[in-house]
Amino acid sequence: MKTNIVLVGLYDKMTKAVAKKLASELDMYLADLVEIVKYNLMNEEEIEKICGIQYLNKQKSKIIGDISSYENSIIHLPYSIFAEGKTPDKFKKYGTTIFLKISLTTFQKLLDRDKSLSDDEKKIELLAYKDRTANAEKLCDLTVDIDTVDYTTAYKRVKRTLDNFLL
Description:
Blueprint: E1 4-9, H1 12-26, E2 29-32, H2 33-41, H3 44-51, H4 53-68, E3 73-78, H5 79-82, H6 87-94, E4 95-101, H7 104-113, H8 119-139, E5 142-145, H9 151-166
Parallel strand pairs: 1-3, 1-4, 2-3, 4-5
Helix pairs in contact: 1-9, 2-4, 3-4, 4-6, 7-8
């Protein structure tokens, strides 16, 4: 039985905010994949330096496999990790994967506001938008068009779609 909801989005801050709100409202656990991997591996650079990239990737894959089998959880999963290898299959086994889709215009607005990304990183994100969106729509069980820069509105659209999906 699928007991998890896995949220995937191109704009990670929006996806994370929606995941937090959804977990709280549905009384489910929040599993932030990036934070869990960081916690478990503590110092990825040191592990890679001492043990090599293959060992590091194997450890990450193991952690991702463990997280995919959590129960009663909202799992925040960045697109960059979701699209790797067999990751989508791992999460689809135990959860419903939902892609939070935004238009290119909205994506650009969100990136323009984001001070944590360099201009080059923003350009790369915009160039990859079309392919990543098509891939996520293909790989996820459900796509929710949240096309907004407002996190609360995005949450409401996801919640409404989930309510209809679960009926």
